[in-house]
Amino acid sequence: xxxxxxxxxxxxxxxxxxxxxxxxxxxxxxxxxxxxxxxxxxxxxxxxxxxxxxxxxxxxxxxxxxxxxxxxxxxxxxxxxxxxxxxxxxxxxxxxxxxxxxxxxxxxxxxxxxxxxxxxxxxxxxxxxxxxxxxxxxxxxxxxxxxxxxxxxxxxxxxxxxxxxxxxxxxxxxxxxxxxxxxxxxxxxxxxxxxxxxxxxxxxxxxxxxxxxxxxxxxxxxxxxxxxxxxxxxxxxxxxxxxxxxxxxxxxxxxxxxxxxxxxxxxxxxxxxxxxxxxxxxxxxxxxxxxxxxxxxxxxxxxxxxxxxxxxxxxxxxxxxxxxxxxxxxxxxxxxxxxxxxxxxxxxxxxxxxxxxxxxxxxxxxxxxxxxxxxxxxxxxxxxxxxxxxxxxxxxxxxxxxxxxxxxxxxxxxxxxxxxxxxxxxxxxxxxxxxxxxxxxxxxxxxxxxxxxxxxxxxxxxxxxxxxxxxxxxxxxxxxxxxxxxxxxxxxxxxx
Length: 496
Known about the structure:
- The chain is of the alpha/beta class.
- Helix content is 33%, strand content 19%.
- Strands 7-6-15-16-17-14-18 form a seven-stranded mixed sheet. A five-stranded parallel sheet has the order 9-2-1-13-19, covered by helices on one side. A three-stranded antiparallel sheet has the order 10-11-12, with no helix packed on it.
């Protein structure tokens, strides 16, 4: 057992109330249950998952949040805390290809399940020199991952000075504080490979030419370490976590909307729900979006303003049409590149030539749709609500425009073949409790990264802990699972 000296909550920790049954809340609940705590989870919806939710329409089933699962060993680690095995709860399929990139010139490039397979594919499409560049990049990204993981991601910070040390020097020497776009450009010459290995910075809310090169770790997870998909959809993950939690004594109460945390002095005493219930607590763990939880449940403004990531529009489509040239995950790049980032991030405008993610989950799990039908998840980056776009007025028109764009890029007849259609806009994300209408939380700018990101101990309170993408280490399923371990560590003081 490794023991880390970090600040912990003050006082008794026997009874923990967790607000929200998202991935972070559920994983934290499992870890706390493993230490013998009494854990109660209050969830406003009738099912677990939070952002990793589920939408059903007839025989069509859609994931409403993440579509990519990387680092399944973090799931293993969570379940192992209570002696459970992933294979008893989840059936994971490793995707091959992980992604298929579609470029404006008509070429496609597959990111394969192995490094050698991706190198061979790059050699086929871009030539052997570019394939050699990929192998060098894969080594670099793996080295960055090894430097960053234990020292900068999978640990609690009490102060920015906690960063100081040998690994910080190693990270700087490896170019981690340079810009990602130019760093990617130092490996690759072909604009196609430059795009496929740098677009992941958008997950962190920053354009590639502005993101720090240390975020090549996201590219590593996506394109080198491998991508998985659970049968039943990504929502099968929170379903499994909830099942494990209940098996090990966690009390999950659905349909319970928490309206405030009752505070006396510097301590949370209980949480209150909209039906007048009062649930006493020694410790409160908050899984809702951190700025919203701080404002609405704690009634305490953040100590400093945050800059938020761009948002996205998602179209959930159930259709009778299928397309033989696509994979499970497809990235359709527009001809424009840097201009589109300036439009979305700087100018608060819609992309004039959008790059679009299209997922076809039924390619892997046909049971998510009626026999002979398909599900499609279409995601387009858009500005968050700070741009002032009137989404109720333009949302459906923009969805129609996206469908026209997809038909121009090879999805012939998709509009006519669609039998189920659900649109999600930034206005919907905001109604679901996400600050500035973005599911990607605060952007990973330098000033909002690592120990500079909002911490998981609520300032000024002895026994309130945050968990999820709004706190450290940040956005994405792996980071949220890590945040659960870090939150549990703040309660127990133990690092297993």
